């Protein structure tokens, strides 16, 4: 038997065959110039039991990964507009095609990654500066509004989780027609609880595409995956469910 720190904080004993199966799932983590959280995202993948594969923005292939994480940071220094330059990286063309293909590659965009997904039109709407015009770093409570996506199936609908938030361009905006569609189609995946930290419309913290394979959110689940190193609530591991969810999807096949 071996131990994997699956969601809940304490290691969970699994048989060697299951551990090998999880480790066979390859999650690509993309690095752009200015990316800050790629190593954190890779560590989260490994803690969940998968294999992290480093992807460089100038790559022209996806290295046969089973899913992709676009992590946070300040790609290209947020010049022009957060995520606007990264959207044109060679690797993003491959990610866009794979996410929209019949295979529906799972893609998670965190913070700057969420900004890149909106700039790439994999997700609707846009991100602008926080309504208070300041950089903000704090632990943030989120409510899981949709646990049917590839990245949220290990959560309960309505569950509240706490993960760190750190951004200056975190205000999610869209026109009323788009917002109404997101609500009606169940594509609001996370909502801020207790306080809206950046002025996002309808307290939206994260959304998905129609298929549920692409999810973007501003808070950072990869910083809440290990006891003692994340928020104090729930052992600080509330973010690990993102990574176990996608691994369970990859290993278990279609839901």
UniProtKB/TrEMBL annotation:
UniProt subcellular location: Cytoplasm
Q: Where is the active site?
A: 111 (nucleophile), 220, 222
Which pathway does the protein contribute to? Answer: Purine metabolism; IMP biosynthesis via de novo pathway; 5-amino-1-(5-phospho-D-ribosyl)imidazole from N(2)-formyl-N(1)-(5-phospho-D-ribosyl)glycinamide: step 1/2
The UniProt entry, under InterPro entries, shows:
Class_I_gatase-like, PRibForGlyAmidine_synth_PurQ
Q: Which SUPFAM superfamilies match?
A: Class I glutamine amidotransferase-like
HAMAP family for the chain: PurQ
Protein name (record): Phosphoribosylformylglycinamidine synthase subunit PurQ
What is the protein's species of origin? Arthrobacter gyeryongensis
Organism lineage: Bacteria, Bacillati, Actinomycetota, Actinomycetes, Micrococcales
């Amino acid at each position: 038997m071996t131990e994997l720190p699956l969601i809940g904080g304490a290691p969970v004993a699994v048989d060697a065959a299951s551990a090998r199966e999880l480790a066979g799932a390859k999650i690509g983590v993309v690095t752009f110039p200015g990316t800050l959280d790629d190593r954190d995202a890779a560590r989260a993948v490994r803690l969940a039991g998968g294999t992290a594969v480093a992807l460089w923005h100038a790559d022209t292939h996806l290295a046969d990964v089973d899913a992709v994480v676009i992590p946070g940071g300040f790609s290209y220094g947020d010049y022009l507009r957060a995520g606007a330059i990264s959207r044109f990286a060679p690797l993003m063309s491959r990610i866009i095609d794979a996410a929209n293909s019949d295979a529906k590659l799972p893609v998670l965009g965190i913070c700057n990654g969420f900004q890149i997904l909106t700039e790439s039109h994999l997700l609707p709407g846009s991100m602008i500066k926080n309504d208070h015009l300041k950089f903000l770093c704090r632990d943030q409570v989120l409510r899981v509004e949709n646990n049917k996506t590839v990245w949220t199936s290990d959560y309960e609908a309505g569950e509240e989780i706490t993960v760190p938030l750190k951004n200056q361009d975190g205000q999610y905006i869209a026109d009323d027609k788009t917002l109404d569609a997101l609500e009606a189609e169940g594509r609001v995946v996370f909502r801020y609880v207790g306080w809206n930290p950046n002025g996002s419309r309808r307290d939206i913290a994260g959304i998905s595409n129609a298929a549920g394979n692409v999810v973007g959110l501003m808070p950072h689940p990869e910083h809440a995956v290990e006891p003692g190193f994340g928020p104090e609530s729930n052992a600080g591991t509330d973010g690990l469910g993102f990574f176990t969810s996608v691994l369970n999807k990859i290993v278990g096949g279609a839901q």
